[in-house]
Amino acid sequence: MRIGVFDSGIGGLFVLKELINKYPNNTYYYFGDNINIPYGTKSKYELKILSSKIIDFLITKEVDIIVIACGTISSNIYLELKEKYNLPIYDIISPTIEYLNNSDYKAVGVLATEMTIKSNIFNKINKEIYQVPCPKLVNLIENNLDYQTILDEYLKKLPKVDVIVLGCTHYPFFEDYLNKLNYKTINMGKILCKKLNLENNKELKVRLYFSKINHDLIINIDKIIKCDYQLEELCLNYQK
Ligand code: DGL
């Protein structure tokens, strides 16, 4: 299969990593729109323009399906995109909501972008929900800067919870840190992959496209993706 995956930057690579683990023999086309990062503070209108350009590009690669590896796009405009395009499109959040609704957890914490929290999507979870918007984290992660102090501040806003949803796909970056602090975490990419039922065929090919390539990006890609990949800089034309 040919699978298109996209995000505002490197966050969706954590989803790609899970896809490759579970469905290794496919061709993956990944687009990270890091020139436009962060998506988490953009309007729905902007998010629609940006994501449509990316999907149009992925379609030129003849992908069979598209995975929206971005919580912000999934929570705000998934239904519009699904309606607009005539191929299977999967969002990253609804499998996690379904999973939690069938779980025994009582109190659930959610860390996510401002736009994801504003969308109220996580209010569909039938548990006690505590949501903390974390607007500063994505830029720190993308630029390989220290995120710990800021993250600790955000964590102080959460009461005691049974589990924390990493509601933005960039956040598995600090999953180990949270686990060391004894927080249980939910990685939405893992839950999505359990639910998907994809074919495996041919050999693994991974093509990564980013709208801006620099040293920090390459360091981050190599931290996350442990297989051969081809990397290309590609700036889509975002004229409205
Ligand atoms: N990784 C994205 C998400 O899951 C977007 C983060 C951002 O660009 O603000 O929401």
The H-and-E topology, N to C, reads as EHEHEHEHEHEHHEHEHEHE
Low-confidence stretches: none
How many E-type strands?
A: 10
* Largest sheet features: 6 strands, parallel
Give the count of helical stretches: 10
Task: Characterize the overall form.
Answer: globular
Based on CA atoms alone, the radius of gyration comes out at 17 Å
**Major sheet: arrangement of strands:** 4-3-1-2-9-10
Bound molecules: D-glutamic acid
**N-to-C terminal Cα separation, in Å?**
32 Å
If you average the pLDDT, what whole number results? 96
- Give the structural class: alpha/beta
Question: Strand percentage, roughly?
Answer: 15-25%
Helix content: 25-40%
Describe the protein in words.
By secondary structure, the protein is an alpha/beta fold. The chain contains 10 helices and 10 strands. The chain has helices at 11-22, 44-60, 71-84, 94-101, 114-118, 137-142, 148-156, 175-180, 188-195, 215-224; strands at 2-7, 27-32, 65-68, 89-90, 107-112, 128-133, 163-166, 185-187, 205-210, 230-233. The strands form 2 sheets. A 6-stranded parallel beta sheet has the order 4-3-1-2-9-10, with helices on both faces. Strand 7 (163-166), helix 8 (175-180) and strand 8 (185-187) form a beta-alpha-beta unit. The radius of gyration is 17 Å and the shape is globular. The relative contact order is 0.21. The model has no long low-confidence stretch (mean pLDDT 96). Residues 7-8, 11, 37-40, 70-72, 113, 116, 138, 168-170 line the site of D-glutamic acid.
